Amino acid sequence: MHTFRQKVRTRIIVLTVLAMAVALIYTGFMLYRSELPILNSFTKGFHQGIFFGLELVILGFLAQNIKGSRSEAALKKMQIEENDERFSLIIQKTASMTCLVMFAALGVATVIAGFLNAAVFFALLGALLFMVILFYAMWIYFAKRN
Amino acid sequence: MKTRIPELRKQRKLSQEELGLAVGVTRQTITSLEVGKYTASLVLAYKIARFFGLTIEEVFDFSEVEE
């Protein structure tokens, strides 16, 4: 329990720094907006959405960790929820299935893009290659660890 | 996999939440174990059996597990 309490404390610090960094980066972009390339409203909206979404996720995790660290019972509950073996299995199966579907979808999209647009084709091919390299790197890492 | 968890839990008048808290898993995991949707790991099976003061074989029924 002591180790988990330390882990939660570290997490709170890291998340606070991260939340502040994201807010600062966004404020920086807003202040120097005139010096940035002119973007269409959709791209601008997308960028804003990414920043606000990220900030919300970080703040959500931060609130969850602060709430968990307030009492011994809440900390224990949080530890159980995080280390529950069924939950871990669900996450593992979800991640592996998502990865498989993404490989297939990206492969199909790359083939289709090849007939339509060279820039999109190479962007998708790059993403596919990156995923394949990452997949095998992770495979080797976990095979050596276990 | 069939288990005797519901029976043992009722004998000791324990809720799923209380058993989960004692062995370090969520209430949902205990529910899944009881209805046979989820098979416990060796560590969890050991913790549950030890909690009830029994052996793993006395709590979990391995007769239906495929070779």
TrEMBL record, chain A:
The keyword Transmembrane applies. The chain crosses the membrane at residues 12-33, 45-66, 87-113, 119-142. Keywords: Membrane, Transmembrane, Transmembrane helix. It comes from the Bacteria. This is DUF3169 family protein. The lineage of its organism: Bacteria, Bacillati, Bacillota, Bacilli, Bacillales.
Automatic annotation (TrEMBL), chain B:
Gene3D superfamilies: lambda repressor-like DNA-binding domains (1.10.260.40). The keyword Repeat does not apply. It comes from Saccharibacillus endophyticus. Pfam families: HTH_3. InterPro entries: Cro/C1-type_HTH, Lambda_DNA-bd_dom_sf. The keyword DNA-binding applies. This is Transcriptional regulator. Residues 5-59 form the HTH cro/C1-type domain. It comes from the Bacteria. Keywords: DNA-binding. SMART domains: HTH_XRE (SM00530).
